[in-house]
Amino acid sequence: MEERIEFIEKKALPLDLPYKLYFVYDDGSKVNQGVYGSLECAEQAKKKYESEIGTRHSNGRTLKTITILWGNGNEI
Asked: Do residues 39 and 75 touch, judged by C-beta distance below 8 A?
């Protein structure tokens, strides 16, 4: 079976890999906020949470950035 490939910003990404949305806090810790079946869904979720960057969460840490990882932890 032929592997389907989607090209995004000159990166070839296999479409069958899950995309993971991570919150990265000011202390360097990462928290998985969800797994998505497509890059489009992960990007929509990232946009939804972007307004929280710079705010202190209930865990006492400040959200520094939001990142999307795919496959074995490769950052997009």
From this structure: no
Name the phi and psi angles at 47, rounded to 5.
Answer: -60, -40
Name the residue ranges covered by the structural domains of the chain.
Answer: 5-75
49-7-14 Cα angle (round to 5): 80
Report pLDDT digits (tens) over 8-60: 444 555 555 689 999 999 999 999 999 998 899 999 999 999 999 999 988 89
Max CA separation in the chain (angstroms): 48
Q: Give the type of residue at 13.
A: L
Structure tokens at 15: 């479409």
Best CA proximity match to 52, nearest among 13, 75, 21, 9: 21
